[in-house]
Amino acid sequence: MANLSTSMDASFWDLNIASPQKLDGVARSVPGEPIPLDGTIASRALRIQQISVLGNGFPLGIIPCYSPPPQKELGTLALHSLFIKAATSNWWLGLIGQFRPKKLISNLKAELCEGDEWELPAFKDVAKHFLDKSLFSLGLCSQIALTAKSSMLFSTEMQGEKKRRCYKAMLFHKLPEHDITMEAAWPELFLDHKGKYWEVPESLSLDCTSLVSESGFRYRFGLHKNTGLPQAHTYVEGEAPHGLMPGLCAKAAFSYEKSKDFWRQKEMKEEVMIQTDKGRIFRPSYDIRLREPHSAISGIIGGTCVAWLGGREPVESGKHRALGADIFGSACYTWQHGKFRKYFSDLTRIDARLDVSSLSALAKTISNSLVNSPKLNAGDFVSLPKLNLIFQQQVAGPIVFRMDSKISLASSSGLHGPQLEDMIYSLNYSLKLLQSGKVVAWYSPKRKEGMIELRLFEF
């Protein structure tokens, strides 16, 4: 199934979004905005852990990524590598480096073209370009296990073209039925639904999440505080999202999730153990979560509540109130052909999920369009239902092509005519030894970004 839990998590919480703009590979979604594409959700594995594993499959352990830089002369290509890794039984530390080669190549080319002769001073002038701080970025990350169920993470990074460092700290504690997380970041990078980045000077959060019960019931609650006015990470037109304005708020949400199979072909032991001339061999699916052809429908419905406790700047439109509650829901249909076991033509999968992130906003939009004008403003357009389509097709062996797309059921000019809002292309290489792990190389035309990630037990 397409991930239904993001319906609740995106309602008032800032999800981790995969982004090459930071060395830790993570930006946050703006709370209260439309649900992000499943393909944009960041890996559960820390970026430094990903690079440690992925580096074994790349020349010299160098992993490329692609993103628009704060300064155009730096170029869009960035190279990541793990410089230092140290670990004990309950502690580890790693140092990541980033290098942008375009500016160096351009400077060297200009330096060599200006000189008339190959003299020693010319080579000294060339050497200084390798010491340009704007070409390099460094990120340090460390995690320590406090107890068997508690751990603490601290990371810091310094982008070469910036004057100040970024810091992040996280404390995680696992209870029998809940996960508790405390996070602090200064500054924190957020990504809005338009694909634009914003920096909040300081972001603090405390979150308690229940595990999904057998009945499908789940809930979470917590506190979130932003300090300082958000600033555009790069040149951005328009005002900063209201969800990033300074203030302290309490959040709570619950959801109920169910699924039903129309048909499902269960995996048989005879299919996993294959008889050959050399005897019986074990040949499982490339991904255990894609091993059974089926057709199914699933759905989630829930409610959210937010209370602003002070320190927040007023909004003239009145859109964001001191106390508010809402209802959200999603419905998904999944069809899969193939067992993802053979080398060719053994996997075709389609997920179609309809998301309603705010029932009250949708009802208001429909009412206004019927009474006043069919033309929608920007706020109404954001609240419209979104159709998320995920298409997956096996290319060869463990390689799968995937396309995530988000479609609004109406355009900003009226209630008729669907509009494509976002799309992501990716190639996935499933790692059979990890049962449901894969290496993902994705590209977002809207954000003009791409990166390579290691993801575990995720779609």
UniProtKB/TrEMBL annotation:
GO molecular-function term, one example from the UniProt record: phosphatidic acid binding
Domain of life: Eukaryota
Record's GO cellular component terms: chloroplast envelope
Species assigned in the record: Lithospermum erythrorhizon
GO biological process: acylglycerol transport; ER to chloroplast lipid transport
InterPro entries per the UniProt record, alphabetical: TGD4-like
Record protein name field: Protein TRIGALACTOSYLDIACYLGLYCEROL 4, chloroplastic
